[in-house]
Amino acid sequence: MEAIGAKSINEKALANARDRRSGLERALDNLDDPDFGLCRICDGEIPMGRIMLMPEATTCVKCAQVS
């Protein structure tokens, strides 16, 4: 039973890592895009601190909290 729980946790961690990797690859592809760093919801600037911590972020903190 414990092995089943551990497998489930590992599968979730792997899925999260794959999602993050996809987001990072997308951010890398879009670095030269003039809209990079702009929130996809409100078109406001995403703060540099957020981009440094989460380069895959496509929304500002305010919009991320609402959605």
The CATH homologous superfamily corresponds to DksA, coiled-coil domain
CATH architectural label? Up-down Bundle
Helix content: 55-70%
Query: Per CATH, what is the topology?
Result: Four Helix Bundle (Hemerythrin (Met), subunit A)
- How much of the sequence is in beta strands? under 5%
Category by helix and strand content = mainly alpha
Q: Return Rg in Å.
A: 15 Å
* Main beta sheet: none
N→C terminal distance:
36 Å
Mean pLDDT: 92
CATH uppermost class: Mainly Alpha
Low confidence ranges: none
Topology, number of strands:
0
Number of helices: 3
Shape: elongated
The ordered string of helix (H) and strand (E) elements is: HHH
Count structural domains.
1
How does this model look, in words?
By secondary structure, the chain is mainly α. The chain has one domain (2-66): Up-down Bundle (Four Helix Bundle (Hemerythrin (Met), subunit A)), CATH 1.20.120. The chain is built from 3 helices and no strands. It is elongated, with a radius of gyration of 15 Å. The termini are far apart. The mean pLDDT is 92.
